[in-house]
Design a protein that fits this description.
The chain is of the alpha+beta class. The protein starts with a strand and ends with a helix. The protein has helices at 44-62, 65-76, and strands at residues 2-5, 14-17, 21-26, 29-34. It has a domain at 2-34. It is built from two helices and four strands; from the N terminus they run ββββαα.
């Protein structure tokens, strides 16, 4: 819902135009800020993918320095 005061796209505009655009006056001048959409929602598929990374990092933390060196040497070649 628009809660904007003043003409749209003008220097005297202030308020919000829907949930994404906010018009305001700052010391530096008039600003229009855009709220970023959530690009990282919590879905079941993403929870599974994050679990893979969590498990891999936990496994890496349990390796000895010699085993870690073997993996890094293998990946460098």
């Amino acid at each position: 819902m628009a809660k904007l005061k003043g003409p749209l796209f003008s220097l005297s505009a202030s308020g919000a135009l829907g949930p994404r655009l906010t018009y305001s006056m700052r010391r530096s001048g008039a600003q229009v800020r855009r709220q970023q959409a959530n690009t990282n929602p919590n879905t079941a598929g993403q929870a599974v993918e994050r679990g893979y990374y969590t498990d891999a990092l936990a496994a890496w933390a349990t390796l000895s320095p010699a085993e870690k060196e073997q993996w890094t040497d293998f990946n460098d070649s």
